[in-house]
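Example (one chain per record):
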Amino acid sequence: MPTPPTAGSAPRAPRPSRRSVLAAMAAAVPAAGLPVLSGRASAAPVVGALPGGGDLGPNVLVFDPATPNIQGTLDEIFKRQESAQFGEGRFALLFKPGTYRGLNAQIGFYTSIAGLGLSPGDTTFHGDVTVDAGWFNGNATQNFWRSAENLTLHPVNGTNRWAVAQAAPFRRMHIKGGLNLAPDGYGWASGGYIADSRIDGSVAPYSQQQWYTRDSSVGGWNNAVWNMVFSGVEGAPAQSFPDPPYTTLDTTPVSREKPFLYLDGADYKVFLPEKRTNARGTTWGSGTPRGESLPLGQFYVAKPGVDAATLNAALAQGLNLLLTPGIYHLDRPVEVRRPNTVVLGLGYPTLVPDNGATAMKVADVDGVRLAGFLIDAGPVNSATLLEVGPEGAAADHAANPTTVQDVFIRIGGAGPGKATTSMVINSNHTLIDHTWVWRADHGDGVGWETNRADYGVRVNGDDVLATGLFVEHFNKYDVEWRGERGRTVFFQNEKAYDAPNQAAIQNGDIKGYAAYKIADGVTAHEGWGLGSYCYYNVDPTIRQDHGFQAPVKPGVKLHHLLVVSLGGKGQYEHVINSIGAPTSGTSTVPSTVVSYP
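Predicted structure:
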């Protein structure tokens, strides 16, 4: 067996640009050929013109312990989704409370697996929920868009393998054993995110370049490569950045766990966990989690093919939205205007704005919860893809913020896409809890101008908190923060691989746009565990002045920064502003700054 990396060691060379992608699987998977499983939710009275509740659709597969040939069905789904990186298949695999034995649920692209209990212990596997990278020759850096949630696992060999990259959350999981985050053979890996989970044994990242764990409990943590960040994690390693590169916060300043579907007897409901401040550990460790439940009858259960006008009509009636797996084309924005509205996706439903529309707009109201869906830019440029609050939003939402959780944005890859600014946060106090905002560096419709997207995330609101912020490859600023008192716990970035030359990224007299730019007028901002990597493979002579840019003010404080030149393809001159040593050579060793200023 190969020797795994030791703490602080560099991984193998990072994933190359223009990586060959196995042929994507075509078309959404029809129900034919799969066992007919119960996806029926209890009916609810019609609310206005559109009904609440109803059938969850053919791509939500609901199992109970007596369901025949569960393993065969899981294997069939995985066969279809294993290499379908840019395909149209979408699945949610839901398991009713009970005990399941002898299962190995391999999880492919656009596949979510979840228990239907109120707590993870209600649904127990004596088996595994596995992500590996055999489809990509042992390279896990493209294991995107999949999730596991709300299960207890007794792994067959004592350790469960979850070798994922970005956009692959692991939430509300209890592992009665260890967790291995690397692929078989310890190939390249670039993840990842854990929240509200308990791992009784040790977590072994091995080759994982970076990882963020929030409000959880671990029995140990084996090693670090570049950037491992923990907030509110019982058993987390002690603070030690940069050697080994552990950033450890005792608590998470503000958190509110993602909504989830569960069964109350025979009735489906959606649980809305309550907000916590200075959180530590799981929400469910000492009994029933705290929060409120909504019956499915208060949701419009959307199926692929429904249009934006229908979704907006449902919202206008006072219904929430449950988006079932599939592709949704939108000719106008989905308008979320009512306080406390929930928009929850199952199995990576994907919103595609047509004709330059914005996919979703949220009013400046309290308590909206957006969770569990993908926005895929269309071929006509959208000025924005997701707007939380209108321009100039000014209301105070401290008591009941809007949350954006496991909401992912993609520009290109599945085909040409363009967006000037991908995610705009105007509402104060918004919580961004795990997002991957990605201008594609491989797939179809990829090129410096073909999938043009200048800005990834722009924050204009005050008191916005990001926990688990992944933003990559934008033509200009990946993150531009203009609001006051913003905070980020964990940031992962790669600059755009495909810049054709130095002139293409020139920012006035600055070489390159910072990955994380704090506007000059901001007086207070704080961040922990922030990393930016460059891989300018088209023109390896490109120089980037810095990964981070911030005003020099007493209230602007950043902790544990790093920049990395991946294999020497381009270099950083500094880490932040003119501070920090340059990267050099091809050794892929980070340059770090422990504290700014």
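Caption: The CA atoms of residues 53 and 297 lie 4 Å apart.
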